[in-house]
Amino acid sequence: MKPGARRLTGSDGVSHTFDPGSFALELILSGGPPPWDRYEQLQTPDDAAAWLAGSYLAADLPFAAEDVRISKPDLTRLKEFRTMLWHVVPALIADAKEVPGIAARDLTPADREYLNSTVGETPRPELDEHGAIRWQTPITMRQVLGAAAQDLIEIIGSDRVSRLRMCQGSNCALMFYDTSRPGNRRWCSMQRCGNRHKVGNYRTRHND
Ligand SMILES: [Zn+2]
């Protein structure tokens, strides 16, 4: 599976692959504030390092969990950023459904200040002894959050914000950045909500 695409299991136990389309949107999937903390995947700094090694951050140039340096306070900072995403991203999505337990809010001056002060350093590439590209290690939380803040700013500060979506499936609040060329992605995944929609249409037609 390519970095950034995530295997998710719904409350019905069925798994599907979900591509959140960007690093910032992907962070939302790693867990969240209550009541979404039951899906927490970042219990420890090691969990977070492993999660990051499978994320969009590693899409163009892979790195290993051991290449990331994360302390406990770093993990707290990562979760603070993620909590901000949970609150502000739904408010930026046209016709978003309500996310259960989450109060969506328009970007506040404090959010803006937080994002502007978080952007800055991002992971740095370098050349190894054979002249091939690799990441400078360790990759720090400052760089991880810098990359996430930059990703979000580039999306929400431009026309790209109109490509933020929430899956149109009923009972599905998965949020993603639509990277499809025509910009018409509607579902978290075709195997899940897209397929349910097709089946629903089929049943509706045949019940007429
Ligand atoms: Zn869905």
TrEMBL record:
Residues 163-206 form the Zinc finger CGNR domain. It comes from the Bacteria. InterPro entries: ABATE, ABATE_dom_sf, Znf_CGNR. Gene3D superfamilies: Jann2411-like domain (1.10.3300.10). This is Zf-CGNR multi-domain protein. It comes from Kribbella albertanoniae. The lineage of its organism: Bacteria, Bacillati, Actinomycetota, Actinomycetes, Propionibacteriales.
